Backbone:
C-alpha cells in the first residue's frame, strides 16, 4: 500500500494530514506499507530539516506499522537503520532520502540514524522492485552503477 502526504510547517495542517494517513493505512489490507513525503523526518541536509515533521511523523509511522518512508528535499542520499521511537529496532521503519539526479547537491551528514549515506556530489536515484512478495530497494548513481 502506498500513501503520499505533503509537507508543511503548519502544525494544524500536519495534524490533518496525519489523521488522513491513519485512515488511509488502516483501511488497507496490504502487507507492505510505504509512505512518500517531500521532507524527511531524518535528514542528510547539513542545514537541518523540518523539526515539526521530525516530532510528529515518526510516532504515526510507528503506530501504523509503516515499513518504508521515502522522501526527497535534501539533495543527498541516505538510508536509515530500521527505526522505532527514534532508535534502532528490527520492527521499525526504514527511512530513505532519495538524493537527486539534478545539479544541486548537498554534502550529506549522518546524525547517527543513517546506515548508508552518500556524500559524493553525484546524482542518485532509487528503484523499488517487487517479486514474489518480496521488495528490493536499489539505489544507483546516475550512470547506473550501484
Residues:
Amino acid at each position: 500500500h502506498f500513501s503520499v502526504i505533503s509537507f508543511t510547517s503548519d502544525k494544524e495542517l500536519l495534524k490533518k494530514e496525519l489523521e488522513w494517513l491513519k485512515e488511509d493505512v488502516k483501511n488497507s489490507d496490504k502487507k507492505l506499507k510505504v509512505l512518500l513525503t517531500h521532507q524527511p523526518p531524518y535528514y542528510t541536509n547539513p542545514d537541518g530539516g523540518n523539526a515539526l515533521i521530525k516530532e510528529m511523523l515518526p510516532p504515526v509511522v510507528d503506530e501504523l506499522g509503516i515499513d518504508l518512508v521515502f522522501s526527497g528535499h535534501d539533495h543527498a542520499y541516505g538510508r536509515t537503520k530500521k527505526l522505532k521511537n527514534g532508535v534502532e529496532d528490527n520492527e521499525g521503519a526504514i527511512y530513505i532520502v532519495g538524493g537527486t539526479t539534478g545539479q544541486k547537491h548537498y554534502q550529506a551528514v549522518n546524525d547517527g540514524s543513517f546506515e548508508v549515506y552518500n556524500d559524493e556530489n553525484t546524482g542518485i536515484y532509487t528503484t523499488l522492485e517487487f517479486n514474489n512478495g518480496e521488495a528490493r530497494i536499489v539505489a544507483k548513481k546516475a550512470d547506473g552503477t550501484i
About this structure: The beta strands are 2-4, 34-36, 68-71, 77-80, 83-84, 87-88, 94-98, 114-117, 124-131, 134-141.
